[in-house]
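Can't paste images in this forum, so I'm doing it all in text. The chain is below; anyone willing to post the predicted structure tokens underneath?
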Amino acid sequence: MGKNTKTDKIKATESENVDGEKRDFVVLAATAMAGVGAASVAVPFVHSMNPAKDVKALASIEVDISGLESGDEMKVKWRGKPVFIKRRSEAELAEAREVDINSLIDPQTDEERVKKGKEEYLIVLGVCTHLGCVPLGKGSGDYNAWFCPCHGSHYDISGRIRKGPAPKNLIVPEYNFVTDKVIKIG
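Text version of the structure:
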């Protein structure tokens, strides 16, 4: 009984090999299932970080500006914020270009704020750069353009801060002309 024969040793070795092979298969199967489980959790999680369809829809808008006459302005809403679109007259263009940029709080030429060939159109976010109020338009303020009544910021016909606590000019959003009378903002 107590003797180990050569046959018993061979059987024990074969049994260990079979057990080892079973163990390797179980480990491999468990690892594969864990990988599949992790992927099934990670994919929806990463997808949830993408913007929703309604947010993508608001990413850009097209605006028909064919009704704007010289000197007129209009407001549209983009990404929940007002956008001022001003078609400036020849006198307003001349006034905007005559300003000494060294006298400005946030120095920027009129040419830097408009598209070449479409200089008469100025497109700016209608949000005061001081505390985010909406400035009044239609010739308001000391510079006959926009005035923020909350704290007294005055903007000129190019949307540049000229007087008051606002630190920066009105922001010019990314935009381009789809046609002569349609602009795409965003």
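The mean pLDDT is 83. Residues 96 and 158 are 6 Å apart (CA to CA).
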